[in-house]
């Protein structure tokens, strides 16, 4: 690897700041986490988006959340085909090896991935339909969600499609046999939440109501 | 989706705490981030591990880092085959749509995924070699790294394999044409770092030395 | 005191969250509690164990429970010998100064203190028998309970000893003259309960049945 | 034990409410905590006072804090004399068996125990000086603190004595050889904090300043 570059100095400075404060204050806890291994209570699947950090919103400390982040917080359907499925690998490890108690899918407003999916499905982004578009092929996971929102008024389609990114993922999670089994045995709880960046809001999916409702 | 459950109350409480403090203090900034979109300076690829949060170590605020997290912070080789590649999609979006200036791959000590890969490659984990093992197939990405460490003394193999998880990923990044092009045009800088959980340490890959060196 | 350290930042953040939500919503009540003093309805004696918080299980709000927590929720026999008895001091203050109406001793499953007592009494923990072992000397209080369970089948001994930690404590409470007097005058009610951590269960001691029965 | 009474119905009702909500939401986590044992990050020593619940102020969830509560959050000096020392037993278990990373002593305003100590030491509470007074003998631990505040203006003496209840306890903690050793090896951090009930405030002891300062 000949082309790696030194870290920008501002990151080095911040790291030293972290080490002299947060690390120093929690030295013994970090040593125990390293020696005894992690025992996270929840897995969180959320977007790569730089504006949405689950650790901040839920005040998660080191050791609490096992976090997978991908474009648009999507879970593909169960497909044990021998190919590389990074999301499915993360889920398998969290549920079967770490035995997390909760699996939270957190979507968010203003999601670029969801906007791209909407443009693609509505015929406005031919470049995303190309075989070579990684973002396009990834957003294919959300096509079933687009079909459910296409008859909504135009201005509601994208917000609804952001919610579908959570719902389709929850549905796909239930296609994994080891998840279905644990959910039905009440050994694992699934949760779907939506975060509103501008308003700092949080909704959660209420299965009885069949809708997202504000968290009270 | 009939089986979603309400969030555990402690998460709801913490969310309300976040909203009443961090969000309230930064309301205008969050509104701008929502309206104007994100403009992150760096993409960070790191592990799902609950003990390693790049936002903490690098003091990253909302809007700064576009973060992809998967098992063992791996990047697969470029493969525009029309299949779903979540990691490649995240990279494509960060580099081509968001035009990040830096791409940091951060590995860490005590990595369960790397330990599994070592067990699998050394013949001690047949269950990971099955076609249906998502973790096994994902860790196949690191097999070239195992080949480079197999002749090391046994006690050094896993620490070295953790470093290989960073190096193999950096090498694979360079197989993406749009990355190679930007790296060579000096429009994008790649960085490889290793975080030591117990010691709070940070090493970075020094291309000239051909080795990881402590960050000073 | 030269060695006190700043609180870890995550606790400071959580405190600020609490202040901005729970405290802000109940400001007037907290002020009254401070000005008029506490008037708790019950004293609860429970274990230090991090998995058993009486405030959660019984939904206790600020001002409701006067709570003493020690290893294995033990009460020593009345011993007005001029020595320091922290548990007896807490009881005296609750009963005579605060005039609580109820005194609840709550035991729990998976109690490390009880397990240590069992190991010590059955000859498997010589280190706990040393004069300098604070835990060992404290668990001496439960030796009379061990004598009652030693003839049970081995797998029942620890669960029964956990119940004895409640019963021996209730018996010892009755050796305090000011408690006996109030109990007999029906000015104070004693209660013994057992909490099952894994099952979320609750049993209470039924004097008529001479056994713990599930709370209905 | 012939005199145990059934729990008041309101507590039974609240327990059932907790079981149907908090427990049900966290069933799997509680099962894991029971099976794998607790691994608390911190021990908190705080008062029995019904108005001061560390779990609330610091948002502590099940499994996070090992909590000892006694009158006035006092720690006696190290005294391995073979007698029963409940506070020392709790500390020994937390530090040596559970290997907590932090030990927090939290005092509070309006502390009845501290007021009693002040009355006793200033000659206004002869009943507390009797050998048979458990509260009096327990508050003897704080007598060295009284000596440090007796020359302050009268209206400052009690608030200062409340702070001394934290400081004397921290000093006494350092007389335990296993604590001194771990503190000096940076394997255990001691913290002293003061909570103001009426104002919802929090101060922490700053060793460099030699004073309690507001938590920012």
**In what range is the share of β-strand residues of chain A?**
15-25%
Number of strands of chain A: 6
Going by CATH, the homologous superfamily of the largest domain in chain A would be: Carbonic anhydrase
Intertermini distance of chain A? 51 Å
Organism (chains A, B, C, D): Paracoccus sulfuroxidans
Catalytic activity (chains A, B, C, D): hydrogencarbonate + H(+) = CO2 + H2O
GO biological process, one term (chains A, B, C, D): carbon utilization
GO molecular function (chains A, B, C, D): carbonate dehydratase activity; zinc ion binding
Task: Please outline the helices and strands.
Four copies of one chain form a homotetramer.
Chain A lengths: L8 H17 L1 H10 L5 E6 L6 H4 L7 E6 L15 H12 L4 E7 L3 H10 L4 H4 L4 H6 L3 H7 L4 H20 L3 H8 L4 E8 L4 E6 L4 E4 L2
Parallel strand pairs in A: 1-2, 1-3, 3-4
Antiparallel strand pairs in A: 4-5, 5-6
Helix pairs in contact in A: 8-9
Function (chains A, B, C, D): Reversible hydration of carbon dioxide.
Keywords (chains A, B, C, D): Lyase, Metal-binding, Zinc
GO molecular function (chains A, B, C, D): carbonate dehydratase activity; zinc ion binding
């Amino acid at each position: 690897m000949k082309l790696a570059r030194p870290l920008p100095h501002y990151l080095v400075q911040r790291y030293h700041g972290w080490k002299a404060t947060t690390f120093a204050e929690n030295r013994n806890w970090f040593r125990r986490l390293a020696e005894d291994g992690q025992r996270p209570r929840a897995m969180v699947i959320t977007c790569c988006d730089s504006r949405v950090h689950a650790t901040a919103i839920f005040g998660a400390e080191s050791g609490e959340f096992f976090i997978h982040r991908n474009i648009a917080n999507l879970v593909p359907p169960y497909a044990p085909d021998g190919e590389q499925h990074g999301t499915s690998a993360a889920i398998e490890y969290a549920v079967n090896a770490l035995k997390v108690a909760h699996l939270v899918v957190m979507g968010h407003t203003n999601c670029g991935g969801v906007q791209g999916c909407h443009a693609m499905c509505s015929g406005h982004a031919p470049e995303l339909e190309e075989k070579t578009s990684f973002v396009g092929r990834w957003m294919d996971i959300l096509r079933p969600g687009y079909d459910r929102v296409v008859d909504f008024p135009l201005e509601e389609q994208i917000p609804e499609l952001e919610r579908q990114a959570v719902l389709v993922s929850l549905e796909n999670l239930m296609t994994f046999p080891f998840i279905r089994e644990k959910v039905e045995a009440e050994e694992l709880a699934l949760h779907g939440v939506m975060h509103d960046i501008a308003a700092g809001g949080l909704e959660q999916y209420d299965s009885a109501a069949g809708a997202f409702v504000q968290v009270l």
